[in-house]
Amino acid sequence: xxxxxxxxxxxxxxxxxxxxxxxxxxxQKVEETVRETANEYNYKEIRTPIYERTELFDRGVGESSxxxxxxxxxxxDKGGRSLSLRPEGTASVMRAFVENNLNQQGSVxxxxxxxxxFRYERPQSxxxxxxxxxxxxxxGNSSPEQDAEVIDFLCQIYxxxxxxxxxxxxxxxxxxxxxxxxxxxxxxxxxxxxxxLSADSKIRFEKNPLRILxxxxxxxxxxVQGAPSILTHLSPAAKAHFQEVCNLLDQIQVPYExxxxxxxxxxxxxxxxxxxxxxxxxxxxxxxxxxRFDGLISSLGGPDLPAAGFASGLExxxxxxxxxxxxxxxxxxxxxxxxxxGEEARAKCFLLATECRHNQITADVELSAxxxxxxxxxxxxxxxxxxxxxxxxxxxxxxxxLKHVQTRVSSEANLAQIVTHxxxxxx
Length: 427
Ligand code: ATP
Ligand code: MG
Fold this sequence. Notes:
- The chain is 37% helix and 20% strand.
- By secondary structure, the chain is of the alpha+beta class.
- It has an 8-stranded mixed beta sheet with strand order 1-5-6-11-10-9-7-8. Strands 13-12-14-15-16 form a 5-stranded mixed beta sheet, sandwiched between helices.
- Helix 5 packs parallel to helix 9 (236-251).
């Protein structure tokens, strides 16, 4: 019986001709870039479990969010507890921060993470049920610099990956005071149009009218065009904070646009929110997003500390890299590929390859081809730099020809000094 991968999931393979974004080298490239950039911004890695108690997400992501309302993979374990596969990273990071009392070790805490997330969504291009995010959270600082740093950090990762033509859209959802004002204005605006709202937005109208601005329904979108703007409902403090974030972005030369319709899908945001979009992906055009969420940690039972962060989808980032034909480093195969002729040579080649590997030289042996020609083809296919054909003559003389696979130029090497010889060729 043949098995099929579950809907909305995918394999990442060494190479994938029909869907090149599933090639593992690209994933490694993004992950390495995230790690390197995080190091320079002084964010440290945190790893949390793939599943948590469901209540954490109910509380930490918010019951009126699409994620909790519709998209969670929830199951009951054998002990009767409700658990959910994590749909995003922030709630878990905050839970870990509180549970491990990390706030007792300094005043500012900066974390990054990379890993799979799970949402029960309709699978389509750019939207999967198991997808991957990298993200960052900075806890403990309420200043506009922190917001600007987080936005710049994400932009810097994209820049280093070679992404182009991205749009950074920023907005503020204000402080609780501004939001209370704005909420009333939104209710007044949408009430006469209530019957025209989508079923989802009717619920949002009751629970969290701000989220109507985030609706993807085309009729809602039309109504949203005429809705009031948060920017005219800001408290002086919220307004000053937002202006300073914008000033700082100007100073550090992060290009952005203000878009007063951005509210973000999660319930816990306050003040700064942002999204980074591309025009090279079709419908799923947001590659990363984030903002400030000062009340989240205390609502999870932790200390009252401010926080800001972002999350970005690896699938979409990689798909943009490919759509924009971002130049990638050439793939490298083994430095040396040994091709034995006969049983005795095969044993020797195995020993030689092992000796190379033990000395940090990438090496492989042809163990299946019956003919030298097939072995040479494999060396080319694997993108080996050198190959060496070893038969009884070579075993007897102790000398081999190292052939450069591309240039076909050969040099003689002593079998007993293969490691030294290869090091000499590459240094
Ligand atoms: P969308 O509006 O596309 O549903 P979202 O607001 O649900 O996005 P966030 O929760 O902000 O997305 O997640 C941050 C990033 O994670 C998104 O910008 C996107 O790159 C990625 N992402 C979210 N959901 C998926 C998914 N189902 N498949 C692939 N990537 C996803
Ligand atoms: Mg979504």
